[in-house]
Amino acid sequence: MRPADEDEYRQFVTVRLEPLRRMAYLLCRDWHTADDLVSITIGKLYRHWRRVRAAENVDAYVRGILTNVWLDERRRPWRREKVTDDLPERVDLNFPDPSMLDRAVLLELLGQLPARRRAVIVLRFYCDLSVEETAQVLGTTTGTVKSQTARGLEALRLLLARPTTTGGDLS
Question: The domain containing residue 154 runs over which residues?
């Protein structure tokens, strides 16, 4: 890579690193895995920087790389393994800030959605992408994005209406 291209790449990554990390966290719900996903994404971005920067919407292209990296990681056999000796962490619902409660509940519910549906919800509502942009990032049709969005939102509503198992009161 030429020095000018490398400087441009570094500036791009520096500005977008934290938003990419947050998006990765919303997808995988684990900060360590999110960091791994972002590392893989920026590595791919570096290798293909000339092609990426020629794209019409570089941010959308990079979100697409990140989403595909996450979906690829979920297919790996070691990601399906669950540790059973450790008890799952319980959510402390006595947050002093009500917005923290909302955020914790939303993250818990988001984690219960299937991977593709979660990706659609994150891209549409966290990244604020249109139906068409989301379809482009995921390499699918707009109809699929619309149906997955509707099903994902309905699933979140049903999960939210379900009685809690964490022992806290959501009201």
Answer: 92-165
Q: How many domains does the chain have?
A: 2
Residues of the chain falling short of pLDDT 50: 91-96, 98, 166-171
pLDDT at 85: 66
Q: What is the CATH number of the domain that holds 74?
A: 1.10.1740
CA proximity to 69, closest of 23, 127, 111: 23
- pLDDT at residue 163, rounded to an integer: 66
Cα–Cα distance measured from residue 42 to residue 20, given in angstroms and rounded to the nearest whole number = 10
Residues 73, 97, single domain; the answer is: no
Taking CA atoms, 72 is separated from 40, 44, 107, 169, in Å, by 11, 13, 21, 37
Query: CB-based contacts of 82: which residues, under 8 Å, 6+ apart?
Result: none
